[in-house]
Amino acid sequence: MNKNKELARILNRIADFLELKGDVIYKINAYRRAARAIESIADDIEELARENRLHEIPGVGDRIAKKIKEFLETGTVKKYEELKKEIPEELAELLDIPYLGPKTLKLAYEKLGVRSLDDLKRVIEDGSLAKLPGMGPKKIENIKKGMALYTKGSDRMLLGEALDLAGYVLGQISMYCDRVQYAGSLRRMKETVGDIDILAVGDGALIMDKFTSMDRVTEVIAKGETKSSVLMDNRQVDIRVVEPHQWGAALQYFTGSKEHNVHLREIAKEKGLKINEYGVFDVSTGERIAGATEEEIYGALGLVFIPPELREDWGEIEAAREGKLPKLVELSDINGDLHVHSNWSDGGFSIERIAEEALRLGYSYVAITDHSKSVRIANGLDEKRLLEQISYIDELNRAFKDFRILKGIEVDILPDGSLDLSDSALEKLDWVVASVHSRFGEDATDRIVSAIRHPCVCCIGHPSGRMLFQRDGYPVDWDVIFREAAEHGVCLEINAHQDRLDLPDYLVKRAKEYGVKFAIGTDAHHVGQFWMVKLGVGVARRGWLTKEEVVNCWDLDKLMEFVVKKRSEGKRCR
Ligand code: DGT
Ligand code: CA
Ligand code: CA
Ligand code: ZN
User: Fold this and answer.
1) Which ligand 1 atom sits nearest the alpha carbon of residue 188?
2) What is the pTM of this model?
3) What share of the chain has pLDDT > 70, as a percent?
């Protein structure tokens, strides 16, 4: 486990323990916020500490900075060790189960002696949990749902996590390989990844030695001449060494998906060919006709090259045969980030620092979209502070040429569908993201439709509300939302944060059919999180999007025209 993750885990555990003890909520949230930031920043925590920059991390004040230093010096945190003695660790782990709050868990622990997942299953099945005060059938149903999510979640990892692991492995072994690349669901940029599949060409014995002796390896599951598997951070990483003339065939086969490959095999069969991880062969003569590159493989089947993100058998093979594959959006097409939080709400960085980072990335704009007032734990902006922020940004913008900080907000969509700030305030902004942050159990269609019809709204933030491994989204009639968004010229966000990836890929593809436009936003709370835009582009590509359909590939003028048009048409409709 790397240092950032290990530290984040400890801080989260402290929060869990405090929660079980019923400590005050602001203290608990402080640990969680710091943990979240540390886990997702690209910077190495040791380096930040060495450079005396710990305070730049959101949520890290003096108290937590002290704990971080303690951890870096001693490998642990005293407070954590003390708490561990008071509360069984296994119990704290159960707090990771969605929909199972600390109050319920505490009760179950004290009254029914629940200390483990098995205990919890037992008290649900024998009905004793349902008999505790405050427990109803709905609550029990939710806990069951949470347990299913929890057990499902634990054997897969987030895409961001997988990229990090694979990046580490390639960094360790690429100098010993003639060729090396990751395949599998990771290459397809799937939102979660089971295990990591790596392919290499070169001296097998040497590569296997280096691969199995990397620092972060905790267990060698298998070590052979052409295939090995190890565990790192409790995740499996497989490697295969192949011959150069098989490279394309192996890469194609192990990239998958299985469904895509099955369909390809059918096509091969129709043509009297056979396809496997070694190549494409003529069945009647046994002659090998392709294998060195993926282009060759697809070509032999009468298809153009299909980008990995499309290989799900969602129609890409038919499209490739007809020459109708879309030209997919690329990371280099992105001109700006449209969802960023500053230290005016719950972000860790000043607007100046965010602008500096956006410039460094070559962006032409960045939207500051802090929370609005009803999101209290995030220190959301009321009208007065928003107006202050607006003049502040106007001032900063004077210094730039060919770059603009967009005045924005992530305004809350209230339960009745109205927005958390007045029209007169919203009209002063360049970019308004409207998001649902409450009542996740209730159908949100009407709320979102009201927001779409509001003249000032440019974008619906994290439209489904789901959090990977944590909670399902609220129920929504997607066809209604897609139709309305297309009709009123409102973007749906592809929230690129690794915990969200919302709108999910398959819904992006469906929405595209309605003519909806999309905005990719990282939801960064720290400049070290801007890299997640890559994940958002992955989702966009999996949803078959071109750069014309992603508004942050547009230049600033075109983007602002889109906003102005929506605003004037929206007003006419009212
Ligand atoms: P994951 O690891 O669960 O996120 O998903 P993948 O897609 O990486 O699946 P994995 O690791 O089991 O296998 C990697 C690729 O190998 C998979 O995408 C396609 C190929 N593959 C594995 N098993 C089969 C199979 O039974 N038939 C075919 N045609 N391909 C397979
Ligand atoms: Ca895999
Ligand atoms: Ca695998
Ligand atoms: Zn939000």
Assistant:
1) 7
2) 0.84
3) 99
The low-confidence residues of the chain, meaning pLDDT below 50, are none
User: Ligand 1: which of 188, 257, 258, 306 to mutate, judged by most atoms within 8 Å of the beta carbon?
Assistant: 258
Residue nearest atom 28 in ligand 1 by C-alpha distance: 258
pLDDT in the model for residue 98: 79
Query: Whose C-alpha lies nearest to ligand 1, atom 19?
Result: 256
Residue of minimum CA distance from atom 22 in ligand 1: 258
Distance separating alpha carbons of residues 338 and 553, to the nearest angstrom? 11
Top CATH class of 331-573 equals: alpha beta
CA dihedral angle for residue 529, residue 534, residue 535, residue 538, rounded to 10 degrees: 170
Ligand lying nearest the CA atom of residue 436:
4
Q: How far, in Å, from the CA of 277 to the mean position of ligand 3?
A: 14
Query: Which one, of 277, 273, 278, 325, lies nearest residue 300 by Cα?
Result: 273
At residue 1, the pLDDT reads 58
Topology of the domain covering 3-155 = DNA polymerase; domain 1 (1.10.150)
Q: Please give the torsion angle defined by the CA atoms of residues 396, 517, 322 and 277, in that order, rounded to the nearest 10 degrees.
A: 70
Domain with CATH 3.30.210.10 in the chain: 246-321
Ligand 1 centroid from CA 197, angstroms: 9
Q: Take atom 24 of ligand 1 and give the residue whose Cα is closest.
A: 258
Q: Where in the chain is the domain with CATH 1.10.150.110?
A: 3-155
Residue nearest to atom 17 of ligand 1 (CA): 256
Question: How many angstroms does the Cα of residue 319 sit away from the middle of ligand 3?
Answer: 28
Q: Which CATH class is domain 157-241?
A: alpha beta
Integer Cα distance of 470 and 450 in angstroms:
27
Reported CATH class of domain 246-321: alpha beta
Q: Average pLDDT over the chain, rounded to whole?
A: 93
Tokens of 181: 């690349």
Sort residue 72 into left (φ over 0), alpha (ψ -120 to 50) or beta: alpha
pLDDT of residue 451: 97
Q: Indicate where the chain has its CATH 3.30.460.10 domain(s).
A: 157-241
Give the residues surrounding ligand 1 with Cβ less than 6 Å away.
184-185, 190, 193-195, 197, 253-254, 256-258, 261-262
Contacts of 197 (CB under 8 A, 6+ apart): 182, 183, 184, 186, 238, 240, 254
pLDDT, tens digit (0-9, with 9 covering 90-100), for 462-506: 999 999 988 889 999 999 999 999 999 999 999 999 999 999 999
